[in-house]
Model the fold of this input.
Amino acid sequence: MKITIKDIARKAQVSPITVSRALNDKQDINPNTKKAILKIANDLGYFPNMLAQSLKSKKSKTLGVILRDISDPFYAEILQGISLTAAREGYQIILSISSRSGVDLDLEYNTLKMMLQKQVDGVLIIPEHEDLRYFAYLQKIHTPFVLLNRVPKGVQCDYVATDQQEGSRLAVSHFIKNGKKNIAYLVRRPLSGVVLTRIAACEKTLLDHGLSKNSMRVVECEDALVAAYEQTKITLKQHPEVNGIYTWDDVMAMGAIKASIELGCRIPDGVGIIGYDDIELAKYYNPALTTIRQNIQLIGRTAAEILIEKIHNGVQATKKAVILKPELVIRGTA
Done:
């Protein structure tokens, strides 16, 4: 049987109004009475009716989070950052997975609509596409939202991202400094705006060092360890001159490392490998992975802070665009 305020009042021999004041931490109540009521509530196993509270305040104290796949360490760390901020600010999280592989625009669109139907106070989204219809719909809704690690062109919204151009510049410059001038870049499908931004930055860096853009070949690949492993074997067999492999993320880099070792390549002397993200496993891999560090948890924490601020101040608050600087972390693979 569900315990109510009346049950607590009967046990404490006070009025339901007094119990309500104690449970809501009001000041106009005797401290000893409040302490006794809270103990009785705890002993009886009382929990407040959050639905009733949300109806009264018109706030659900929940944040919606839409991302691709929490089995990927990048998304898991993003979620951890969001969770830390949400818990600190008294919010719960409702998580929806938009797509576990590839891009499904209809699924992402329906996932967003279902999330909004849950009456969340705000939404944090990592979209896997850049369809303008999706973003046009987002801008029509009255629910605050913040994008993570995506900067869609022509869309005015709040977002937190890493400087993708600087990340690729750091990676390619490090290769060139160490004599690696035949580079294969394993990138995820589809070639989204973020992917194209990184590719363009790689090509500009090559030109800035007096090299041809043809010094780098772009190799499309599913962003998964096995796919990267298989594609690296194909690439190195077809193009034995490749001496530097840059990958979309660290998981793909780990597949590239295994493939390179199996083909007899010496790392980093024969083939250098640089990942992207600096997930926790990167420093424990053997050999330890040289990578471009995004402060992944900080992206999540910052985006959640911006969203909660918008919830408090209204959707018309000034848009915030936060671009975080990446960092080259040199370890054993390049």
